[in-house]
Design goal:
Layout: H1 6-10, E1 24-28, E2 33-41, E3 47-52, E4 54-57, E5 69-72, E6 79-85, E7 88-91, E8 94-98
Antiparallel strand pairs: 1-2, 1-8, 2-3, 3-6, 4-5, 6-7, 7-8
Length: about 110
Amino acid sequence: MQHGSFINQCAATPTSVVPVVGMGATNMLWSDRHAYTVIAVSASGKTIKVQRDKAIRVDGNGMSESQDYTYETDPTGTIRIVRLTKRGWRAKGSKFTLGMRMEYHDYSF
């Protein structure tokens, strides 16, 4: 069963991406996205720890689809354990993509 928007499914990370500390990560929700940073990688490379970043909105577009952010690491940000599965990078059913940081809030819900 697939969850989330078509765009998020298309942006999902191939399982061939090798995670490294400091790499950006994005939690792909239904239509929202949240930015994270990889803070630890297991010896096997199949389990990582990610920490939520501070996403600072820098555009003046209000409640629109056009959103621009800058990102800062947040030492107090939520830490999640993400594992490589047959269906990609997952944390308790939530999909992650590696190699980029993205923040997006869908105001239509």
